[in-house]
């Protein structure tokens, strides 16, 4: 299954961490020091992130290919979500990273469609502030937020519906997955109530958890870094934020059924 966090991370990699140039005639030579154009880069990053791109080959058929595989074509409202594909069906495509930034392959060092291999200017592939291209549509992966707007069962199990609702409330990509986690050691912390199908590993962190950590830090109940990891400090902060840091709920470093019931109750008010 595709992962939006991985898509964002791969676009960051290609546009900021390595030298990747712009050349429409060599557009599939995507490697450090190679070449791409706007659509080949997005398609390549989508595949790296595990998404089915079907027969997509350029901007003109990208929408049809992706909407056949779980993406929705939405009107442009100036409020993209992290992981959205920003599409002009004729001329350009980019990926919205969040925090007002997008990643894109832009133009060669000559200001034309072709140039030397590698990024000669530092701007052939780039990350910059969101702008109105103009875009024709946003392509968004996963469930419509309205599909996760119903009441959750307060059952203490953090399964796909609970994770999706949590993501929708926090304004992060909705895919029912807490991605990029570390395996709990079972001693300093545990996550017994998080369903196995709702977590992936790798240690790079989750946008959902970053949003949660930012909120907890603002509430003064979390002092750790914004690393996206649902670890002991974050779980402790959740207990405090949700009002269940009681003796009966110890240890406060366990993401267990009692904490999840409190979370589900809060999410059912469409707040966190």
UniProtKB/TrEMBL annotation:
GO BP annotation list: proteolysis
Any one GO MF annotation of this record: cysteine-type peptidase activity
Positions of the NlpC/P60 domain: 1-142
Alphabetized InterPro entries for the sequence: ELLD (IPR057370), NLP_P60_dom (IPR000064), Papain-like_cys_pep_sf (IPR038765)
Signal peptide annotation: none
Keywords on record: Hydrolase, Protease, Thiol protease
Family, similarity comment: Belongs to the peptidase C40 family.
This protein's name: Peptidoglycan hydrolase
């Amino acid at each position: 299954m595709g992962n939006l966090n991985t898509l964002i991370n791969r676009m960051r990699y290609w546009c900021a961490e390595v030298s990747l140039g712009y050349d429409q005639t060599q557009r599939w030579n995507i490697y450090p020091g190679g070449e791409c154009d706007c659509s080949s880069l997005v398609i390549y990053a989508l595949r790296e992130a595990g998404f089915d791109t079907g027969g997509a080959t350029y901007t003109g058929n990208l929408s049809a290919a992706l909407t056949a595989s779980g993406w929705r074509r939405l009107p442009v409202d100036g409020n993209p979500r992290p992981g959205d594909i920003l599409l002009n069906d004729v001329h350009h495509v980019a990926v919205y990273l969040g925090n007002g930034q997008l990643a894109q392959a832009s133009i060669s060092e000559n200001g034309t469609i072709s140039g030397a291999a590698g990024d000669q200017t530092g701007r052939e592939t780039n990350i910059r502030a969101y702008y109105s291209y103009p875009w024709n549509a946003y392509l968004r992966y996963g469930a419509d937020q309205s599909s996760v707007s119903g009441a959750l069962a307060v059952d203490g199990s953090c399964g796909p519906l609970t994770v999706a609702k949590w993501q929708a409330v926090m304004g992060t990509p909705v895919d029912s997955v807490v991605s990029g986690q570390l395996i709990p050691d079972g001693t300093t912390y545990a996550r017994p109530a998080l369903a196995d199908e709702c977590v992936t590993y790798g240690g790079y962190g989750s946008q959902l958890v970053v949003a949660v950590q930012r909120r907890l830090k603002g509430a003064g109940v979390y002092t750790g870094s914004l690393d996206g990891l649902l670890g002991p400090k974050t779980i402790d902060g959740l207990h405090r934020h949700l009002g269940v840091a009681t003796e009966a709920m110890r240890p406060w470093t366990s993401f267990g059924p009692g904490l999840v019931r409190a979370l589900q109750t809060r999410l059912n008010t469409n707040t966190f």
